[in-house]
């Protein structure tokens, strides 16, 4: 595997907030307690962790029960014992996408492993934890996965499994409808260890969460990744003080978040989540559906549900419900990291650009409820280029950034490269001749009248534009004739920039495991460096 760096500013859709955080600019510094360079502060940050010993034992018992259900490795059991005895954790997590979700879920787990091992080597005993966001209720975000077929075209597989509308995905059980989806995956991936793992874990009567957990427990058995199912009722009971605080201090939390959002926008950044003075950071289960809670009217009133179908409830009643049945409540995306770090002795969280933006806002909640803002570290990010794609790129003189320009631009570039050699040479000769002659003209104009130089520059720009336009038109004509060229461009786009997005977000990680075996995970682990914050181009 060969690795090449591509700075994030060259990656499409990179936000200013994330780009500034990576270089830890003065503007970003105001929203993040630590720079993204882990080695600089790992020991100092470890000394700030405050974690009650009884809570540690209680959570360790819950995690041991969960992980033993998934027949985890002896390495995982050893890591659970380290946690019980006082280890810190590196936390990462993700929604429980079908068949393990996009490739970046694998990158997250491996980054957590790498950071935990680096912390341990630095003298801070640390283990990796993967948090399954099983109380999320957006089924449409987890019920599908995209996998390339033999022709390179990406196909999206979707299961019709469903439960009560707006129910947490932990409540959605797979039925026999998952079986034909497994057959589709096997047809695309072939008969190998990866498809065997899918058949063992994605079985009827499993949920999206338990199936995902079983798959990841096996994929990362060699590293002992501890998997945490957030929907566990016992974990909700441990988190009850945070749920209560979200209600008791709702007005203060909302005010701080509104102020934080205004500060982000004043610095030229975006808010990942829009917060209003009536926002509450909890959801409640009603008849099996996950419903938002809002402050209602003046004083201590709250409302549960969507517009037009809300239940009015007092603060006292809401707190009583939380005390008696905390499992009927769950945090929103801004409270979730605080819950994670109340339940776990978190040294740091590792995630992508969106999570980094969430943390920029959630710091206002951390400060009020925990008194310490857990640092976030960018996860490993990469585009893998398989041998077939490498050959196509070499054939047409294409780079990965060319692919990121989008399918249409890529087809034009392919077509331009496919023009007859004599026509390509004629365009190049004309361009060189034009540059040489116009340079000579500008030099003479400078001596004659310097005010004419700007007019000459404008003329040069227009001539180049017309020549480039003619070149593009010729390439388009060639493209219309060349079905093979168009197909090659489509294949490369689908492989490296599917659906006009990064490969790591658009292709299921299980595809790469199926194609290259579990040894690929070890190769990826070796490629991760916590001091390298660029996007990686990996040639397999």
TrEMBL record:
Pfam families reported in the protein's UniProt record: CC_BshC (PF24850), Rossmann-like_BshC (PF10079)
Domain Bacillithiol biosynthesis BshC N-terminal Rossmann-like: start-end pairs: 1-379
MF annotations from Gene Ontology: ligase activity
Top EC category: ligase
Entry keywords, A to Z: Ligase
Record bears the keyword Ligase: yes
InterPro entries: Bacillithiol_biosynth_BshC, CC_BshC, Rossmann-like_BshC
Domain spans labelled Bacillithiol biosynthesis BshC C-terminal coiled-coil: 382-540
Superkingdom of origin organism: Bacteria
EC identifiers of the protein: 6.-.-.-
Record family assignment: Belongs to the BshC family.
Protein's name in the database: Putative cysteine ligase BshC
Gene: bshC
